[in-house]
Design goal:
The structure is a single chain. With 78 residues, this protein is an alpha+beta fold. The protein has a single domain, classed as 3-Layer(aba) Sandwich (Glutaredoxin), CATH 3.40.30. Helix content is 42%, strand content 24%. The chain contains 3 helices and 4 strands; from the N terminus they run βαβαββα. It has helices spanning 11-27, 39-44, 68-77, and strands at residues 2-6, 32-36, 52-55, 58-62. It has a 4-stranded mixed beta sheet. It is globular. The chain starts with a strand and ends with a helix.
């Protein structure tokens, strides 16, 4: 699984990264997690509001931080 966290480093972006890393560890998923902070690259994904989460080259969340349960469900079904 390829996961990208898109965000410039704000508090919500950091929160999404922490939640994502925790969910991946808890679910014991085989995933590569990369953080994308370049505004040009974030815009290239079509994201206008951060934080955003990209799973396997698909933007699945943008502009909000999901609950831990919602994130776990999303990653399980990806």
């Amino acid at each position: 699984m390829d996961i990208k966290i898109l965000g410039t480093g704000c508090k919500k972006c950091q929160q999404l990264e922490t939640l994502t890393r925790g969910a991946v560890a808890e679910l014991e998923l085989d995933a590569d997690i990369n953080k994308v902070t370049d505004p040009g690259e974030i815009a290239a994904w079509g994201v206008m509001a951060t934080p955003a989460l990209v799973v396997n080259d698909e933007v699945v969340i943008a502009g909000r931080v999901p609950t831990a349960q919602a994130l776990a469900a999303l990653l399980t079904n990806a």
